[in-house]
Amino acid sequence: MDFKELVKNNQNNVRNIIRLITKETNEDLEQEVFVKVWKNADKYKEQGTFKSWINTIAKNVSKDYLKSAYKKNIETSVSDDDILNSIKDKKTTPELKLISNDRQKRITGAINSLKPKFKEVIMLCEIYGYTYEDAAFKLKCPVGTIKSRLYNAKKELAQNLQDLL
What we know:
Distance between the termini: 60 Å
Number of helices: 9
Number of strands: 0
Order of helices and strands: HHHHHHHHH
Strand content: under 5%
Structural class: mainly alpha
């Protein structure tokens, strides 16, 4: 078998191993695998299949790449574009304020439309930050009732505000 045929028969397998280990397609690593196969062909011992030997080389080359300083350097270097994209505009535009106000009105309206027992539990636990136990003490009911009402209130709110989620 000539070398071109060897590459052709094993290229997809080598590519898949590299992609599986490094989580990226890297033609340089593929080339490195086949260069090592070519250079070390005389060292191959027929203990397993030739394909498994190539697979082992592909695994080792991929693992070495992950350990290499080159890979770490690429991951830690940050471009100017990345920095600019990460800076958030702290200004709120009138449009964003309007959307935020509209969203807030819809949420408040949905809470106000709840049954009184659901509304008071939502207000205590979600708005004022009461624990289940504190809410149960304040409303003079069991903790399980608080949990049940809170679950049902959230479920109803999720249905009413589905387009906002």
